[in-house]
Design brief:
Elements (H helix, E strand, L loop, with lengths): L1 H4 L2 H14 L3 H8 L3 H21 L21 E5 L2 E5 L5 H13 L2
Antiparallel strand pairs: 1-2
Length: 109
Amino acid sequence: MARTRNNSAFWAAHLEAIRREATSKTEYAKRHGISVKRLYYWQRKLKESHANTVLAGQPKTFVSLRVEEPAPHRSSSCTLVLGGMRLEMSALPAPTWLAALVKSAQGSL
């Protein structure tokens, strides 16, 4: 049994069941006699593993970005497209905000 509990498939199945049931991890762990700490550990480990797999398959390239002043007849706006996400903003955000957004988007994979 201990060998099974160290298997990522074992924990992935439990995490998927929690998502389907829309229950708390603590309640689920109590019902199934599993450690809530291990549940959180494996959630983090599987998420990191998934993110690393996704990122490893992506080419490491820079994307060119051109910033221009809006023409006088156009309203001041900014459209940002990251993968399948499209953001329309009234103005160009600060570079630190953009960096935090990209980091957050990569973390939610």
